[in-house]
Design goal:
Length: 93
């Protein structure tokens, strides 16, 4: 976590920059999972602006069957990926 506003008065609007990385699957040969979170927060005129990105990458060592609640195969894959972006504007009253 980096807070640039603490290091320079000219960056008073730049409140926070965060990046997190997580790797799951060190002890397992069947799955590798990478989770990443990136986040920026700015403040102008007492209004907060946030941007965030979540990236999740799951790699399986072989084709895996995904089934629904009745047991029917709905997907066969060796990789699942998801990316979520968000932008938030908020003001405290």
């Amino acid at each position: 976590k980096l807070e640039p506003w603490k290091y320079s008065s000219s960056l008073g609007f730049f409140k926070e920059a965060v990046i997190e990385f997580e790797y799951l699957g060190v002890g397992d040969d069947l799955i590798d999972t990478y989770n990443t979170y990136f986040h920026l927060r700015f403040e102008f005129w007492e209004i907060m602006f946030q941007y965030g990105l979540f990236a999740n990458i799951i790699r399986l060592s072989e084709d895996t069957h995904m089934v629904d609640s009745s047991g029917h195969i709905i997907l066969v894959t060796d990789e699942l990926n998801s990316f979520v972006h968000f932008f938030r504007i908020s003001k405290t009253f």
